[in-house]
Each structure stands twice: as C-alpha cells, then as structure tokens.
Please model this.
Amino acid sequence: MNDSKNRVVQIPGKDIEQVVDIFCDAFFEYPVMKYVLGDTTDYDSKYRKLIHFFVLNRVLRNEYMFGVFEQEDLKAVATVSIPFKSVDVPEIELAKKQIWQELGEEARGRYEQFGTICSQFDVAEPHIHLNMIGVKKEAQGLGLGKLLLNHVHQFSKELEESRGVTLSTEVSKNVAFYQRFGYEIIGQAEVGNTFTTWNFYRPNS
Model:
C-alpha cells in the first residue's frame, strides 16, 4: 500500500474488496443502484453484490482503478474503462451469469435498459470512460474527488489514442460540479420515469 497522503496510485486487482468497500459507502442511495435492484427486502446484500460485479468487470478486463490512501486506509477510488480497447473474456460472461442468477431477471432487465439509454450518447472518437468515482463519507469535502478527476484527465492525455473522458451522473447537483471541470452535457434522458441521467464528455485540453 501507499504511505503518502493525498497521492493517487493505481490499485491492483487483488485489492478489489477495498474498492468495493469505498463504493458501497459512497453509492448506497444512488438512483441507479436503487433502480436496478428494485423493491427488495435484501437490499444491503444485493447492493454489495452489484457493486462487486461493477468493479470485477474492470479487474477482469485489466482496466484501471485509481485510489487515494491515507497511510494504509483507502479514502477515495475511481474506476476507468477504455471502450475502444475493451474485450470480453470468458470470466466476464460467467460473472454476468452468476450476478443475474442472484439478483433476478427483472434486475437484469432494468440494468440493460439503463445501459441502452446511455449508449445512445456514446462518443465516436477514442476516449476513456470514468465508470465510478467515490469518496468515503468521512473523507468527503477534502478535495479527493477533484484529485482523482485531475488524475483521470492526465491519464487520458497520456494515453496516446484517447481524445477525452466520458462519464455520467444521476444526481442533479453533480451536473454543475462536472461542468466546472470542463465537461459538456452530450445527452440527458429519463430512466423508467424514476430518475434522470446526464452524460458528459470532456475533450483532452
């Protein structure tokens, strides 16, 4: 682990559970999670399985997880995918089969519906996608989200083929936050008459 405070490091796949812990702490009330899981009496357990599935996709594809540590304590995380290089592997298909067996076909249908809605705002030129960014509740307001965002932007610049960064949010107050970092809205849609998704693109500057 990293002993330096407030420095972004790449997190290895073996530390997946620490990453899952951060996202579980940060996204518990997030609209997408509640929408996919629906009305269930076992929300906590299913929620963690869903978050684990999201992170496992990055690990199995050998994509990127960036984090900020304070001593040995992980405080903030961002996961990044590279759509123009992404390739499914057999392990991903097995993970998909397992997660939807556990969460049910209705959850799978809502998840795929959300993905279809967002896909209409795909960017044609090569780019990276910021899948999730989360800060532990106790560390929010300390600038760690900004630190991670700036690192992702620099990562995109240094990746020869990438022309920018995409992301989406389903929380209205985040819209202005991302716009301050140079993101432009490229699409907005209602999902299941339940919440709004905003999709953004930030060209490398």
User: Anything to note?
Assistant: The chain has seven helices and seven strands. The mean pLDDT is 94.
